[in-house]
Structure formats: C-alpha cells, structure tokens
Amino acid sequence: MARYHHGKIQFKWCDHCGTLILGDGCDRCDSAGNAFLVSAPGDIRPAMGQSERMLCSILEKHFLAGNKVEGKQVFLNKVAGEDRTDEVVLGGKVIGVLRFDLKRNDLLFDLRLEGANLIGKDAKRGLLIAKHQTGHMKGKNLVGSDILEIRGDFEADDPLIVLVGSMICAGVAKTSSSKISSLEKVVHIREVGKLAPWKPLGGSWTHFVSANRMHLTSLESKAVSDVKSFISNNKLPVTLSFSGGKDSLACYGIVRRAFKDFTMLFIDTGLEFPETVAYVHAFARKNHVKLLVADAATTFWEQVDTFGPPAKDFRWCCKVCKLAPLTDLIGRNFPGGTISVEGNRALESFARAETSFVESNPFVPNQTVLNPIRDWIAAEVWGYIWWKGLDYNPLYDEDFERIGCYLCPSCLASEWKGTQAIHPDLHRRWTDYLEKWSKANGVGKDFVRYGFWRWKVLPAKMRRLAEEIDFQVPRQRSDRMRLALVKGLSPCATGGYSVEGVVFVPSKRAFSKVAEVLKTVGRTRYSDEYEIALTKAGDSTVKVFGGGQVVGTGPTPEKAERVFESGVKAYLRAQMCTLCGICVKNCKRQAIALKGGPLVDEERCSQCGKCTEACVVAHYFDKLVTSEGTKA
After folding, report:
1. SS3 at position 264
2. Are strands 338-341 and 238-241 parallel, antiparallel or unpaired?
3. Which stretches does DSSP call E strand in 428-531?
4. Residues 113-152: pLDDT tens digits?
5. Which residues pair with 163 in a beta bridge?
6. Which residues, 6+ apart, have CB-to-CB distance to 329 below 8 Å?
7. What residues contact 228, with CB distance under 8 A and at least 6 apart?
8. Sign of the Cα pseudo-torsion (557, 562, 565, 566, in order)
C-alpha cells in the first residue's frame, strides 16, 4: 500500500528493454530487472513532451550533450524542495536533480555522479580537468590553481564534470569560467567515483506498457472488482468526478469496465485552462458519455476582494468555486444521492495519505466517494492510460505535473512560469490583481514576484528565502481581519465567566442577517433598531452588536470561550456569506434558506453545528482573523 514515509524507495529497471518495471519482472523479456533507489515517497512519473525537451535543452546548455537523453525513457521523481524538485531517472540511475530556483525564476540542474559518468569525456562544455588531490574530495572546494584545463564556458551555480586522473566528480561552479583562475573557491565537489562511462538503451513508452502488462492488468482487475462489489450492494446512480486530469482519466477506464451506465461530473471553476474545458467536452462526446457541468461562472472574481487571494493554507476558493456548484448540481440531478468515483491518490499530498476506498464528503452530504486508485503511483496511472489508449489532456505535454485552476496557489512557481508561456493573458490578469492587492496591503511587488502571497502564514522555507533576498516580509499576510479582545476571560460579578471582544470586518449586510445566523447557535432575540442580539445557548449566552462587539458568558471558562467564538463566527458568517448554499445542503432538518444571506427557521434548527462546519468562513476562521489582546 503506497503511503508517505521517509527514506528510499526501490524500483527495478530492465536494461534489455530500456524501461521501468513496475511488477515482479519484465513481461517483454522475462528479465527480473536491476534494482535502483529513489527518494521517498516514490511517486515516479514519465517525462513527456516538453518535459523531455526541457531536459535535452538543459544537458545541451551545460554540456552540449542533449543527445544523451533524446529518445530514451526518462522518469521524474518529486522530492521535497523549495519549489519544483525532481530526481531525474534514466536507465535505472538517478543522473541529477531538477529544481526551480525562486530567486532566479528558472530551473537549475544538480548533476549526480551517475549523470557525470553518463556524459563523461564526451562533454564539450562544463568539463574541467584538475590536478591530483590528496584526502577525501567529496564536499571539497577546488581552488583556481587546481584546474589544469577548462572545456567551454560556464556561470556560477552551473553543474560541472571534473576529471581527476581515473576519478570523475559531479560538481557545481562557485564562479564563472572567466574568473576561475583568480579565486580560491571555484568548484564545489558533490560526488566522487571511478570513471565508468555507461550508455542507456532506448526504450519507447510502448515498451513500458508491454513490459508491465501483467502488473497493469492486476491493478485494473482489483480496482474494477472493488468498484463492482460496492456498487452491486447499492441502488444509487453512479457518477465519475472528471477533472480533466490523469487520475480521473484512469478512473474513467475503471468505471467503464465496472459499470456501463454512469454520468461524468465536471466542475468548471471559471479558472480552468481553456485546454481543460475543451478536452473534457470533447472526451465526453467522443466516448458517448453523459456529462453534467457544475459551473461556478464568475464566482471567484466576485469573492476575491472579500477573502483576498487564496493560499495553500487558505483555500477558500475550493469551497466556493468547487463544492458549492457541485452540491447544487448533485442536489438537482441526484436528490437521493450518488456514488461518485474519484481519482484521489495517497501520494498526491500529505493530506491524502490516509485516503480510504470509501469516504463520505462532509461538504456534499448526499455523495459517497469511491477511490479505486488510491494506492497507485503516477507511473502506474500513465501506464494504464497508454495501455487503454485513452486520450489525455494536452497540458501534460507542456510540462505540467498537475492540472487544475490556472492561478491555484498550490501550483508550482515553475508551472506558473509555464502558464505565462502558453497563456500570457491569464497570467497577466492574475498578476495585475496581485500587484494591486499587494500595493493596497503595503507589502510591495516582491511579495508577489517571489510567491509569498501563496501562504497566509509563511512556512520556514519562505522565511529563509526572505532572509536570502533581504526582503522584510511579515510572518503572516496582512489582509487578515482583526478580533480585538476588549476584556479577556475573566470572572463575572454575578457569577460565571465572560469574554468581550470586537470583530473588525467590513459590514456588507443588515444586522438582521447576523441575528439569523445566531439562531444556529441558540435561541435568539434581537432589535434591528438598536442592532443588538441576545442568544441563549444552553447555560451560556452571547450578545452581538452591530458594530462587531461580542460578549460571551458561561458558567465555566471553557463554555464562555466556546460561546464567544460561536458569536464571532456567526457575525463573520453573516457579513462574509458567499451565498454558496453548502450550509443549506448540509442541514438535514431543512432549517436554512438563502435570501441575500442565510435565513434560519428557529423551530426547525437543532443547533447541531453542521452548517457552521460546512461554511468556508467558519472553516478558515483562524486564517481569516487575527486575535489581539491577552486573556486573563
């Protein structure tokens, strides 16, 4: 079972067929293959189209050796890094690491020993011959006087091959070739070994599929069996969540084998690449499958001024632009519920590491989700797609690892640069918005240029980047709203405890809407004229005023704090409601309606809290609001 863990992951390579082996052996030649290791988690994927051309270009640029990978099977293995960081696998060996440097806004190539031996003496550039060295060379910095010969020009941080007698080294330039004789530290040696040239055999993707036919057959059989077994015991209609990405495409192949009568669901967030929208519709037509589209239209642009740019740790857009239209679509077309097959994989992210075969969607209550490829790796997904002859999204040939919204904060900076190349209009629209937003929030263009906007609270790697470029960046984005504690938790004169604070949020709606949401907390009475609401929640109470003042009281400190937070969340939910309707669909008692904001039937509402759990505002409460003041 594929799951995240540390260390190395073993794969096998067939030298005879020039291909990766996913199963016990090669189905083309019966070879057991040779083992090799990559870094965990091992979600290895093929380098296709522009990815392969880019690798050829990099080796040509640094060593005039682009032909070393041309026409060969190359795989990429994503590892931890500042941005894009991929181990490059060729011939069952890791020849180097591709990484995107945020400061340079460009890809760098870190050469490994196997890569140095691949290119070896054939390099017409980036090759140095050095004097014999005493002691260990790995980790050593060579000085200018150590260099006997320089082959071709290079710049600082370029990968270098260094020959020292019968030894070969993979190194990195500490300076440019024009300054090498005048400096002490000119080359840093990363890896050292015996000079042992090697040449990988060519192998097509057709070879890859045929070498792994039995393994792919076994994967499909299990996935189809799992889906069939679950569906046979249920009477609900079957749907396929089809995003236009590779994983949902593989699930199409499985569902087609398992169940003939199904409907494809596509969520058009209004931020999809044009290629994705065209691909999804063309795929449905070609394969004669019914397609239903949940269309978010212009929702993102209508809400972005309220919430600010989405972030990796603040993905409000997913609820507003994905879950809301999907909930509405399923409610209209499948009122009794549906079984949806989705392409969620455990190795996609830490958040999905514990993905189960059957899951319920907490935000779409009448949808049961099946994840038949949860334990597949990316190479297995692609092998299956090629085996079944399924047409895939053309963006994968443009060096995109993932397909989604073009401005998603979770996409890599390297992919954002790719978006600029193929869709400068989309790139410019979002960049223009970010620059206006950064100016309004006083953080400057570098906040956008280096991608700091992608987090509400900056991780350590981004704080390190800020130090390296000498950029004074706040630890957290400055567009958060404020909750000022006027009086922290303290004993009441009449008994019990209280908490008082003020929420500073732009008022968008009449105070009556705040009172409506407070009904989900407890019994509520309010005055529109004086803009005050009093809510009784069990043995606790919360008062909320039109100016954002909130007072929570309870018999214990815990209850006082709990009801205070409920009051704050209710105020925010009312003022920042996106009218997405998820709360309506999550209310089993049908106590909520939408009319310029939530309307709550107090007689039906049981204060179960399901609507609060489903609300994007309440869900991201800690990202939206900064608390000020101290608790007594």
Report:
1. strand
2. parallel
3. 481-491, 497-504, 523-527
4. 999 999 998 999 999 999 988 778 899 999 998 999 999 9
5. 129, 168
6. 265, 292, 293, 294
7. 258, 259
8. negative
Site of tokens 């999907």: 326
101 by DSSP, 3-state: which? strand
Q: Where are the beta strands (DSSP E) in 444-496?
A: 481-491
Helix axis angle, 511-518 to 557-575, nearest 10° = 130
Distance, CA of 485 to chain centre: 35
Which of 91, 79, 2, 90 is closest to 39 using CA atoms? 79
Q: Are the beta carbons of 611 and 628 closer than 8 angstroms?
A: no
Regarding beta strands 263-268 and 238-241, do their DSSP bridges make them parallel or antiparallel, or are they unpaired?
parallel
Contacts of 190 (CB under 8 A, 6+ apart): 110, 111, 112, 138, 139, 169, 170, 171, 172
Closest CA to 564 of 467, 476, 631: 631
Instruction: Check: CB of residue 82 under 8 Å from CB of residue 91.
Output: no
Q: Return the amino acid letter for 198.
A: W
Domains of the chain: 8-194 (2.30.130.10), 212-398 (3.40.50.620), 423-468 (no CATH), 481-628 (3.30.70.20)
pLDDT in tens, 260-302: 899 999 999 999 999 999 999 999 999 999 999 999 999 999 9
Q: Which residues contact 529 (CB under 8 A, 6 or more apart)?
A: none
Please report the DSSP string for 18-40 in residue order: TEEE-SSS-TTT----EEEEEET
Q: Is 180 helix (H, G, I), strand (E, B) or coil?
A: helix
**Hey, how many other C-beta atoms are within 10 angstroms of the C-beta on 602?**
14
Angle at 368 between CA 363 and CA 371, to 5 degrees: 105
In contact, 77 and 92? CB cutoff 8 Å:
no
At 201, the pLDDT band (50, 70, 90 cuts) reads confident
133's CB contacts (< 8 A; 6+ apart) are 140, 142, 146, 164
Closest CA to 73 of 206, 262, 213: 206
